[in-house]
Amino acid sequence: MREVTTDAAARFDNVVFTVDEPDMRAFEYNASNELTKSSHGGTDVYYSYDGLGRMVSKWSGNYSAAQYYRYGGKPFARTS
User: Fold this and answer.
1) CA atoms of 53 and 69, how far apart (whole Å)
2) Contact at 8 Å (CB) between 65 and 75?
3) What 3-state class would DSSP assign to 36?
4) What is the arithmetic mean of pLDDT over 49-64?
């Protein structure tokens, strides 16, 4: 784990956050600060985004879901 101390705003790319506790969770983000993976209790959930930064799918094991957007960027359907 990396620790940075600064008086200015800091930018992090591909950072993994973890919390050391019995109910451990971990989160991974890409360079665009989008959540790409979350882990909890041995289960990993992955997320993908379109070119506008909107989440379009998530999956874990045999489960997957997709989200579709209409004109104006409003979500209008989710399938799983």
Assistant:
1) 12
2) no
3) strand
4) 93
